[in-house]
Amino acid sequence: FTHTLFFPLIFLILGVFSIMILKGYLAYLHYEKGLIYEKKINYTKAIEEHKKAVALDSTNSSYFKALGHLYAIRAKFDPLKYKKPAIDNYNKAIALNPYDAWMRIDLAAIYTSWGEDNLALSEFKKVTELDPNNAFFHNLFGIFYLEIMNDKKQATLEFKKTLSINPGDETAGSFLGRLE
């Protein structure tokens, strides 16, 4: 390398990294702004901000999850328009972070709120496959089986799994006491 090539190359590399850092920071600012709008129950502006965040950084699963969550809220009022974007954004978030069981819990809750219990069941099964030793997840799954699916046998199995993981779990003990 000669000095005439070395310095322009360094400046070019620094410029590219600066742009990447700036885009990430701007994406984060839009994400935060979207959360503020969501707290103010201004879902239209919140969606706009989260879309900007995703456009600037399409590798952050939290941005897609936030957008999916907002679309799911809107789907309660206009399911034909918002259900598909809600699920699409959750699926993008899951694709970016496939081991995040909490995203699947959120998705299961959304399916349940829409009355799509079999899809929720599928997500709950994936959650317990991802984190089979999480007593909290087994409790949620047990409550889902009992309250939504009306399946006392499966609910009992889930609560027993909870107690095998955490013998002192009061929630599982209480539900099992009612079931037996």
Explain what the structure shows:
The mean pLDDT is 91. It is elongated and about 80 Å long. Helix 3 runs antiparallel to helix 4 and helix 7 packs antiparallel against helix 8. It is mainly α. The protein is built from nine helices and no strands. The termini are far apart.
Rough shape? elongated
Major sheet summary line: none
Q: What's the gyration radius in Å?
A: 22 Å
Assess the beta-strand content as a share of residues. Answer: under 5%
Tally of separate helices? 9
Give the fraction of residues assigned to helices: over 70%
In brief:
The protein has 180 residues and is mainly α. It contains 9 helices and no strands. The mean pLDDT is 91.
Provide keyphrases for this structure.
180 residues, elongated, mainly alpha, 0% strand
Layout of SSEs?
Elements (H helix, E strand, L loop, with lengths): L2 H37 L3 H14 L4 H15 L3 H18 L4 H13 L3 H14 L4 H14 L3 H14 L4 H10 L1
